[in-house]
Amino acid sequence: MMGFDGTTVTPQIRQLIQEHHIGSILLTAKNLKSAEDTTQLVYELQKTAHEAGHPVPLTIALDQENGGVNSLFDEIYIRQYPSAMGITATGSKDLAFEVAKATAEEIGACGINLIMGPCLDVLTNARNQPLGVRAMGDDPQEVSDYGLAFMDGYKAGGLATLGKHFPSYGNLEFLGSALDVPIITESLEQLSLSALIPFRNAIHQGLDSMMVGGCAMSSEGLDIMHACLSNQVVDGLLRSDLKFDGVVISECLEMEALSHNIGVGGGTVMAVNAGCDMVLLCRSFSVQQDAIAGLKSGIKSSMITVSRIRDSLRRVLTMKAKSTSWEKALNPPGISLLSSLQPSHTELSKRAYNSSITVVRDKSHLLPLSNTIGPDEELLLLTPLVKPLAASAAAKAVIESMAAGSPEPATWERSASVMSGERVFRELGQSLTRQRNGRVLHTSYTANGVRPLHENLINRASAVIVLTADANRNMYQQGFTKHVAMICNMNFTAGGEKKQKPFIVVAVSSPYDFALDPTVGTYICTYDFTETALTSLVKVLYGEINPTGTLPGTISQGQKLHQRGQHWLVETYNEERDAHALDNLIRAVVSDTPPNYRCELSGASSNTLTLHHSDVLEAHFVVRNSSTHALYGFCSTYFFKTTGTGVIGALFVDPTRRKLSIGRSLHNRAIRTLLQREGAKRFQLGSRLPSIFLGIPTGHERRRLRSWFANMGWNTALSRPVCSMVARNLSYWTPPEEMSKGVSSATGSAGFEFDLVYGWLLGAGVLDHVRTSNRQGLAEVYKVALDDMAGSGVIRAKRQEDGALVGTVVVYYGVGSALAEFVPAVRSLDEGNQGPVGGISSPVISPAVGEYSALLQALILLAVKQIKQRGCNACVLDYMDGDGNFDGLSAMGFDVLNTFEETSSNAETWSMVPPS
User: Per the database record, which ranges form the N-acetyltransferase domain (predicted)?
Assistant: First the structure.
């Protein structure tokens, strides 16, 4: 299967058809101008094949996933439909079937006979995966149900179907470089329990073809560089285990990592021998010739057998017989059929979008807006500058257009279905203006944060709408939105009375941006930012339609049912009675950890787990043997009154008594206790104070633990990576010269000054600054530090022009400091003959600061210098955002110590109280 550049039949693709008899072609946005031109192009390709003596027509394939990923757009004849996740949000599998059938009918009218869908990936890690709304959600059964509805609709529309991206792109780990292949780290057992369910069910229901990804697989018993080149994946897992006898199509072998590591010629031979029936090569004629030469060489050298080729031929001919014939291929209905379909499909598009818009929360009843602000008041719309989805063919078109220096607008800029964010959001502003007969203020925002222009407009407007697009992967959007929310919450009337300004957040791509953040009181999801989606959004904002969409996946299904198991007697931890036994339990868990992994409990003791802090309500639980007084399991809970956050800070069981439901019994008791806390807003796995487990540990038992907590009702799909770090050998440490210069330059030009404070003389201002973050445990960490003048301090960053506090970080010195007691890594390193060990904790940067990275590096750099001056030989950085870029911290000499997945849930929507 090959692609090519051009909107007409080029000499290169003609040669491939006539001389090499390629049987399949993939068309992308770069080939397609309109429905009429597409019909003519497909006809010319088929005619070329027919005249060249091909016994059967070409397979002509197209990506047409809807939402932001459409290869073919025609404003007159091709309708826009919601993304896969948007359709799932409608809650209607019948609607999914209708939309899929309509999509197939439209592109089928142009001569297409294979659609590259449905996308059957399960977002087992929804927060960080680039698939976003191209996937249907994080619940494997729901993805399966809607995937089958899509598949049946495509078939009813006359197309062959393709499942992708086997074995799953739903939880890839990305290493950074284009030459690094994304990795699946789940074992085959884990994949079988979740990610493979939609693929397995689609196979049973007659899926025609399957795309196998080019990702790596690395887990116990698996070490695969590229899945589509692996016999273990294709002939083993897909053919033998899942009994798939349809057409297997490889990922494009032109991907840089694959071609660089193996070479296209050798990769082609490997793909065929692995069991692929079609090898995909997207565009480069020279690379395509290399692949053909590799195939011929493999056959001549008997590396590829004739029987292997014949097996693939049989499968391909079977698929073609279902979806095409020469009579059909040489007589595409084209515009005549599309004209007749247009009225009903236009109505279907509107119905689908109107049904998908989801109002997740509207706590203050701001909707409809006509009841919130008057016609003479101004509405402010703040929108991000975004590009098309990275996975879309349209994104490639804009890159190619820019590279060629084309004066013409790129395809995505001309197309209402995949317009640039700037243009489509401008249309949204105009639609809002027309709807309300009042003035709409509209401006964009970037990673530079809230600027004076934004502040002036926010103060002027009577209500504010902020749009976000994949804020979990564009972190500046989260900071900007939080800052605007803070300004709206601090609004005052002319009489000096505090009055919250109406504030609405609309996620126009991934719904996970603020799904679990109850501080965003009115939150709406559209699942894509096409013009049609935003037209429906305006109708929802002004009450013309009643929004019926629901968040797909586990996030809206309430918490999962707990598995049945033995119920153990859970008792409240008694420090006087149980402390010694808890120390023994901790030692047993540490001893059980494999030597090549560092146990999070190393250096911990019973004292580490009890805070005795006035702003924290503690309740810890044990399963114990009342005769021997031994502890079989322990669970700690903390309720931080300042943020309304209930935390499970540690949960561990005697290694000799695991899988007996001890952990389940402890967890259920902990949740029941946290649910009873007055003012509880959110629950969290992992605690900053004490800093032992920052979340679900991602060491040697990562997959098992993640699955266990998911089954207990936690939304692990929305986990956030965090880690602790360490810098060793500070006696030889000097600050990196280039970094020192860069930080000095950045902070100097921004007008920052730094100082180090001890005690409460200046503590109140520090706490006011810290509370703007609203993160669990931050204020408590700072209170402990400010109480401990001898062992801890706070480094502050202030803006020179007005003295405003814009950044802080806690620094503490040695095991004698109060904070070190709650950071076992400090004690563990100190006992390991590293010499005295200091610590850095809880940096807080104001969301209004545009120079976030530079200021963070400056604070940590100054903290390391201070710790070194105190004679410490190592330094623990006990809590860092794992989404960040660690190049700066690595340059300072920091290495990752432990990694975790911080997982949160909304306490108000935790729907099931565990049994007593």
Answer: 619-685
